[in-house]
């Protein structure tokens, strides 16, 4: 639209990486521009009477523009066309940079979350392992000193901590599957009372007293 307003020419712009993606077009060029997608784009240059210009900055070619000038523009008009196309290239560059920055931030946040989760998991995994080892060692080395009730209590502790450890490992595997896209989420209605009751039951031994 800026080209049309300043110089009276029609134009259209495509992303260089995907020339099937029409980014913008002036009203008079839109209908024709929608037919100029790869692989027909290069073959139809002469037919539709337009000139192609690469939109590039120091970072490389970011887009491609088609300009319908009707008659060959004079030196002054050509300078205007070149200037406006260069502004278009700069605008595309800014959008590209903004997208790259957003992706970099997402990666950084993802890595930060991964580090925090692994740190938390490493701590959570050590606790049940230490409890299981302590209980099992007590049973193996001091079995004769424990009564039936104490032995049953240690066995129950081992079972509870093993279940807890198994839950952590299952969660870790689910996280891996989610990240790789191998796990499909199924949304379903859940009674919150049942969920809380199940969580309290798993924590019953630790919350005793």
Question: How is this structure best described in words?
Answer:
This protein has 209 residues and is an alpha+beta fold. It contains eight helices and four strands. A four-stranded antiparallel beta sheet has the order 2-1-4-3. β3 and β4 form a beta hairpin. α5 runs antiparallel to α6. The longest helix is centred in the middle third of the chain and has 68 residues. The radius of gyration is 33 Å and the shape is rod-shaped.
Structural class: alpha+beta
Helix content: 55-70%
Strand residue content: 5-15%
Estimated radius of gyration: 33 Å
Strand order of the largest sheet: 2-1-4-3
Low-confidence stretches: none
Shape: rod-shaped
How far the N terminus sits from the C terminus, by CA atoms, comes to 74 Å
The main pleated sheet reads as: 4 strands, antiparallel
Short structural description:
By secondary structure, this protein is an alpha+beta fold. The protein is built from eight helices and four strands; from the N terminus they run H-E-E-H-H-H-E-E-H-H-H-H. It has a four-stranded antiparallel β-sheet.
